[in-house]
Amino acid sequence: MAAVVESDQNAPAEEAPIQSFLVTFIIRRYDPEVDAEPRWVDYDVEMYPTERVLDALHKIKWEQDGSLSFRRSCAHGVCGSDAMRINGRNRLACKTLIKDLDISKPIYVEAIKGLPLEKDLIVDMEPFMDAYKAVKPFLIAHSHPEHGKERIQSAEERARFDDTTKCILCAACTSSCPVFWTDGQYFGPAAIVNAHRFIFDSRDDAADVRLDILNDKEGVWRCRTTFNCTEACPRGIQVTRAIAEVKQAVLRGGR
Ligand code: SF4
Ligand code: FES
């Protein structure tokens, strides 16, 4: 007599294995000790849709070519160290999922533009940090809070600069700005975002100092409102709006 196989209606359905794909990455490599010019190098990497471009870079470095150089630290969109151009757009490698890219074509990865290239995907961040430091990105208060008390601020006052507190200094905005590419003298969107964070803080007493700094010929007036910065920001900061608010504050002569 033939055996009857009964299916268990209550048994959990077996999950289909997640399919992997062979993805081609074309990376702009540059070793200053060997190369006169940067060169594009292809790598085929087995990837899962849920992995990120940062995972691909790790696989290339760990399994194919240990000399590939790039920065990363947190791997979760917090430290801002892995901004790079992916298919021509500034993004964080750790926040760019393979499933969101068109893997039927190669994925191009290169260093961000406008800052001196050091090696592979690493640029010299000093000019970027110099502009950031120049706008005095720290609280300057001329009075002390009452002993043992905090500086009081209303929810509305705090909301005034909430957006610009989210900056992680990744440089995706500044290095996507065509004005910054032209000569690198412009303070750049990130420095203005971080000035905005303090200019509109009701506890701060140095808005006029920062507005004066940004009224310089390399300051806010060089912005051409191209919105590249807002599109590039991985934190969703309304960068162009922040720059416009700083421009208005310069014209008003205060926050
Ligand atoms: S404003 Fe956005 S894109 Fe610019 S440095 Fe800050 S986090 Fe990065
Ligand atoms: S590695 Fe820290 S933001 Fe991507």
DSSP strand content: 5-15%
- Unreliable segments (pLDDT under 50, ≥5 consecutive)? 1-6
Q: Within the largest sheet, what's the order of strands?
A: 2-1-5-3-4
SS field, number of helical segments = 8
Number of domains: 2
Q: Which overall shape is indicated by the principal axes computed on the Cα atoms? A: globular
CATH architecture of the largest domain: Orthogonal Bundle
Q: What is the class of the largest domain in the CATH system? A: Mainly Alpha
Q: Helix content range of the residues, please?
A: 25-40%
Order of helices and strands: EEHEEEEEHHHHHHH
* Total DSSP E strands: 7
In short:
By secondary structure, this protein is of the alpha+beta class.
Question: Which helices and strands, and how do they pair?
Answer:
Layout: E1 21-29, E2 39-47, H1 53-64, E3 83-86, E4 89-92, E5 107-110, E6 117-119, E7 122-123, H2 126-134, H3 155-159, H4 178-183, H5 189-199, H6 207-214, H7 228-232, H8 239-252
Parallel strand pairs: 1-5
Antiparallel strand pairs: 1-2, 3-4, 3-5, 6-7
Helix pairs in contact: 2-5, 5-6, 5-8
Bound molecules: iron/sulfur cluster (SF4) and FE2/S2 (inorganic) cluster (FES).
